[in-house]
Amino acid sequence: MQKQLIQQVSQAMQANADTIARQKDVIDYQEQSIERLKRLLTALAETQDKELKALPSMFEALETSLSKHTKEQQAWWNHRKQYTEGQMIIAEQLSKLATIQMQLTTALSEYQSTLVPADELTSDMSALETMLKGITEQLKSSQNAIKQSQSKLMSELETVAKLVNK
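Above: the chain's sequence. Below: its structure in token form.
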């Protein structure tokens, strides 16, 4: 029985040694896990520290970008306002121009209604040309008569001059 007891104690001690070995393995594994976690936490802390240090410059860049965007937006709105005002002025001027064109059209219509039609002008022109030809003929005839009279007068003057000189 003592043998049995020694054997049981020996088995118990072996089991105890195995348990201690397993516990040692678990502790080693946990220590490795803790070391790994420490490294990860350190890396995380360093990353967060870098991000925190970069945050002010990122905020400044964002603020600059927003300021630039706001200025560009304002410039675009100003341009749009000027464009709209320009379009309104153009529309106003086109309206005035249309009114003036309508007045001009009315005035031209009134003027055209006072003009003599072209057919009448042609017949009047023909009548005037005929009258002019007649007057021209009369004028030529009168000129010839005047020349003849001048010739007779000259001849008479010469005769008078000869008589006076004698």
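The CA atoms of residues 47 and 60 lie 20 Å apart.
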